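Late entry, written up from scratch paper. The run itself happened at the end of the previous shift, but nothing got recorded in the book at the time, so transcribing now.
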Amino acid sequence: MNTRIALLALLFSGCGAGAPVALTPTAVQPTQAPVGLATEPATPDLVTLSIVGTNDLHGHLERTAVLSGFLANLRAARAVDDGAVILLDGGDMFQGTLESNMVEGASVVRAYDALHYTAATIGNHEFDYGPVGPAATPQSAEDDPRGALLARAAEMNFPLLSANLRVAATGAPIEWPQVAPTALVEAAGVKLGLVGVTTEGTLGTTIHANVADLAMAPLVESIVTQARALREAGAKVVIVLAHAGGRCHDFSDPDDLSSCDADDEIFEVARALPAGLVDVIVAGHTHKGVAHRVNGVVVLESYAYGRAFGRVDLVVDRSTGRVASSHVFAPQELCQDGRTPVSECTPGEYEGAPVVVDAALLAAMAPDMEHAREARERSLGATLSAPVSKSYTLESPLGDLLVDLMRAAHAGGDVALLNAGGVRAEWPAGPLTYGTLYESFPFDNRFATVRITGAELAELIRRNLQGDHGILLFSGLTARARCVAEGEGEGRLEVVLTRDGGRRIRPDETLTLVTSDFLATGGDGVFAEIRSARPEAIRIEDGPPIREAIAELLPRAGDRLIRRSLRRAAPRRPRVVWPEALGERPLRCPVATR
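Output as recorded:
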């Protein structure tokens, strides 16, 4: 029997550590110990709290049935020693699969309720659905740009937390039903304070129209304010749910940070927190693994798509509230690897017992899975002789193919542009189905056009090559970068553009660029200068999502278009070219070369 954790959100002022609205924390009711499972009696004042973190499920619904099996074993172990399991999510729960997107995340909420989540925070992709209904952005003044998100929050039997979202016009904290900055819960006699925050880059990494009236407060400031208020309200342990992340490669020693990227957002946050204020951070957003202590704070992040979960066991002295010790576990894979389907999953043992996939949860999800299966298996009339791979930081065959298909599906564009972050899953060999296209391109972005000069296009490509975000993907042109002399001992990156036929694009030449409404309305800051100086140059179209236009095109010309694109795709014929001497992105020009 799973532990049921009933929760009551605890609201604080977003600008100060004001008095809580509801001070009495709700209690975690321990499960009964399984019959026949023996254990040593616990030390009366010491109790083990297992903090379990998930993140970036992105609608991979079936994986929750495997997670349920692991949780059942862990909850049984904590029931025996009078401890508790605290299950938390670091955001980006919904967007990404047909099973979730067709019902705007409602299927994920049902699964999370069945797993008895304690709380979750808001991820940047939680805003992607926009209003309730098929439109991804408001179509009238009556449409609530967060309608789908708030509908999901109203269905949750656990709080959705956000301490750093603000109203742009006033700087005041958001006041949305069923959403709070913090929560106070009680588990095994210990009061825990929970704070939710979202990466400060959120407003540039979701559809702009759905967040245009919002602002982001700094993570550290928001966490410190709310964590102090929770401590004053009696919290002995403070946990942050942060849709902001990092990356590490070695999990053998949680105190060895040599395999971690020290500059990642969540590590900078953890280092800036006052000592002893926060005990654990359940992170997300970067889709990488973290199971380390940073400045005394345990940071957990467990990849994405339901591949794994994170865990730290805190031994807490109930009489003093002091954390006596902590045991950090490496990210726990649910199956053999992140690609194994649930039907082939062999999760093995956990906490001394076989892990049993939750058949009841699978049965409850069956209608959503079946509805999605029918759509997923629809043939798009093309066959792939080999897998088509993707990349976030470098040009890839799938990225080139999708941006070529965008250009083919939209008549009248000179060139097309797509952000690599919009390409979410690789294409396997074999018949191409709608499900494959959908999971690689799940966002309901519409077409947009931008009237842009050759000089403006070359400049935004130059900035992208010198940045460390996802690479921009192009169709209809080649971009060649080199370092040119600018000062003594200095160089400047220069980008020269040519059309597919080889003709150079003049700096003063005006092009019609086809892109997504995500980028055109402010996503990733790509067209920020044009939006500011010439907003009339950008036009958002009212047609179907880009994905649906491609799905309509493929049955008519799919094999021909795919073969032609892959012949001209990276790495065979890259569209963004620079000298090997510059290394990999981000490109730098410390010394001029000719």
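Residues 546-567 form the longest helix (22 residues).
(Scratch paper discarded after transcription.)
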